[in-house]
Amino acid sequence: MLTERELESSYLGQFIPVHYHHNMLMDNRRMTGFKAAIDYLVAPGAKVLELGGGTGVLSWFAAAKAEKVWCVEYNPDLVREARTFLSRNVNGHKVEVVEADAFDYLPPEPVDVVICEMIHVAMVREKQVQVIEAFKQRYLEKFGGPLPIFIPEAMIMAVQPLQQDYCFEGYNAPIVQFREATFEQAGSIELAPPAVYATLDFTQNVAEDIRWQGAFVIESDGVVNALRFVTKNILAVVMEQSTTLDWLNHYMTLPLAQALTVKAGDQLCVSFAYRAGCSIQSLQASIRAGDAAIFAVEEQTETIAA
């Protein structure tokens, strides 16, 4: 019998199929970004822990300079695969693949760097925030401070109103879409610039609850029928160059329950509230969009009711 957490993990993405990890190996932007960040932050002779190691590739990047790497993976299929792959690669012997739950595991000794790539755009589905925050608490209780460096170090999340084409060979189907972040695809019309709605800094305490209400000034006439969510992962801060090593997730476009006709100069108010690691549907159900007057009336009504 699966526990409640195991059931939620299976549904929300912690036990994703092996072939999905193969797709991540083929994602050049992800691979080059993490390799550069790990090379920058892992010092020679360092001790490194990876939480949610998948195929073991990020642990292997760390093993190029680290003395020891613990690679924690919950999925037994991936544990076997990671051990096989690492045995075929130079420095693979420096990586110990541990079959364990990242929510519970602690290394046998203090570590210098923690890699945790349980990242989904908008921080939904995967348990990045919960795993890292739980780890911080357990680590400090066992080893005291300071905390290790985390990869990624931070995330910046933004949202943007769109007019999205949902017609597929004549078939109208408003669906959740994921698109490459490196170029624009036909069918998406940006009606206002993106707005940052949250910044997560793993050197600080990070709350699970994410709430935002903001306003966009519409730049062209159109129909707002979707919101695009953008997540920029700050993998490493390169202080001496005043720059960062980043990885941009695929854009996630969520259809609105009701489309809104807008004109240039209109103010569009948007709000949503969700918990990091929740389902996409939970985020989608919380979205409200309308003009400022409607929001003012709703807020006044809520105040009177309270």
From TrEMBL:
Q: Where in the numbering of this chain does the Methyltransferase domain appear?
A: 48-134
Q: Which domain of life is it from?
A: Bacteria
- Matches recorded under InterPro entries: Arg_MeTrfase (IPR025799), Methyltransf_25 (IPR041698), SAM-dependent_MTases_sf (IPR029063)
Report a single Gene Ontology molecular function.
Answer: histone methyltransferase activity
Q: What is this protein called?
A: Methyltransferase domain-containing protein
